[in-house]
Specification:
eight-stranded mixed beta sheet, four-stranded antiparallel beta sheet, 12 helices
């Protein structure tokens, strides 16, 4: 079997540098942690961010900086006049729920289509269960070792931006606008864009590289909120608890059990259907906290999901005399669609860049959120592009070097597209 071709000579030329960067970045533990009291929430994110500042400086960029909140900003100057300033954004953190330390990436060269047996924990990547894996026969596939995340979400995006910037910096003969680079912390806990200095960034629009499959271009995301249900029981010595003790842990279990079993959950919804998802319970007999994420593309439906959670918790707790409940709703990010559609050039440019790389755009809403959701809501239109990473938020996470290289090449194409006269006017 011959190795699969890259999408272009440009993508193939980017691959060695891209892979080297990716393997280096995923080894840095950048897990974020919820309920942060500082930005970023963990010091490991700063380790990678400082590394990126030094690497950007080594590429010849004069202004790389790490700001007081853990954001990396840098500028690649234009090679043409009168082009708009365009932003490129990715996040450095990985999810708090699975191990991100001690990552040992493995490169499976010229993947043959068989089951990939990872060396730890008996983890298997079976193309019969992962259609995307079956589609990359002949690619170079990168995995972790089975007991950690790989970190492709979103170090694939970070690597792709860095490789594209390195290529553009080394080829000043290529037309490009001023590119502003931004690497964010704490995206995985919903805080990646909250302290992002949009005015200082100075771009008319931006792109996150935080998608998945080859060709994805997303300008619509879920709207998201987190609902925190806190139940207070009545704690008494269990030997004398008759008629007095109210176990908060049991009440919390009844709240979760009362949620719809045949719908409105991630495992029973698809396409444009929303859901509620209890993802963390911390409980004792005295106090229990249930954290639930609520998602929908429609804000009115999202509000109904939030109300369902509130009503369910209150009804269950009312049936346990002596217990009390507090329900807090924290809005996390909006659907970016209504903000981006006011600036159609940002999507048009991405479609043109993808086609210039020989890729047909896949326009589909994403059942998640990105930094671009918040940035778009704050006035910086920011759709999302693919990265070539798959099985995110899992120890089965993997990435195709061929698809990653295509993403990096798309960034290079995007820079040229934004120098065309009609897009200059549109911006």
């Amino acid at each position: 079997m011959s190795p699969a071709p890259f999408t272009s000579d440009l993508a193939e030329s980017l691959a060695p540098d891209l892979l080297e960067r990716f393997l280096r970045y995923v080894r840095v533990d950048t897990q974020s942690q919820p309920d942060r009291d500082q930005s970023p929430s963990t010091p490991g994110q700063l380790d990678l961010s400082r590394m990126l500042v030094e690497e950007l400086r080594a590429l010849g960029l004069e202004d790389p900086e790490l700001d007081e909140n853990g954001y990396v900003f840098a500028t690649l100057p234009a090679t043409v006049d009168n082009a708009p300033v365009i932003g490129l954004v990715a996040h450095v953190d990985t999810i708090p729920d699975l191990p991100g330390a001690g990552v040992e990436p493995i490169v499976h060269r010229d993947y043959d289509g068989a089951v990939i047996e990872l060396p730890r924990e008996g983890i298997r990547l079976d193309p019969a269960e992962m259609p995307a894996l079956a589609d990359v026969v002949g690619h170079d596939v990168v995995t972790a070792s089975g007991d950690t995340l790989l970190g492709a979400d979103d170090k694939a995006g970070v690597s792709e931006i860095m490789a594209a910037v390195a290529y553009l910096a080394a080829h000043p003969e290529l037309p490009r606008p001023t590119l502003r680079i931004g690497f964010t912390p704490d995206e995985e806990i919903g805080e990646g864009a909250t302290l992002f200095d949009i005015e200082r960034f100075g771009a008319v629009c931006a792109y996150t590289l935080d998608g998945s499959a080859l060709g994805e271009l997303q300008d619509e995301t879920f709207s998201g909120s987190e609902v925190i249900i806190t139940i207070h029981g009545v704690d008494v010595h269990p030997g004398w608890g008759y008629g007095k003790l109210v176990n908060a842990a049991k009440v919390a279990a009844r709240v979760v059990a009362a949620l719809p079993a045949d719908g409105l959950s991630p495992e029973t919804t698809q396409d444009r259907e929303g859901y509620v998802h209890p993802h963390k319970i911390v409980a004792t007999g005295e106090r229990a906290e249930i954290r639930v994420i609520a998602r929908d593309f429609d804000d009115d439906k999202l509000a109904k999901h939030e109300e369902l959670l509130r009503r369910t918790a209150e009804e269950v707790v009312a049936a346990a005399p002596g217990a009390t409940v507090e329900v807090k709703v924290r809005h996390q990010y909006p659907n970016m669609r209504s903000y981006i559609e006011k600036f159609p050039a940002v999507v048009e440019a991405a479609e043109r860049a993808l086609r210039a790389e020989g890729i047909e755009p896949i326009r589909k809403e994403t059942r998640g959120g990105t930094d671009g959701s918040v940035l778009s809501g704050r006035g910086l239109p920011t759709p999302n592009l693919f990265t070539g990473g798959h099985e995110y938020h899992s120890v089965r996470e993997w990435a195709s070097l061929h698809e990653m290289s295509a993403a990096s090449a798309t960034v290079v194409r995007l820079a040229e597209v934004w120098t065309t006269s009609e897009l200059r006017v549109a911006a």
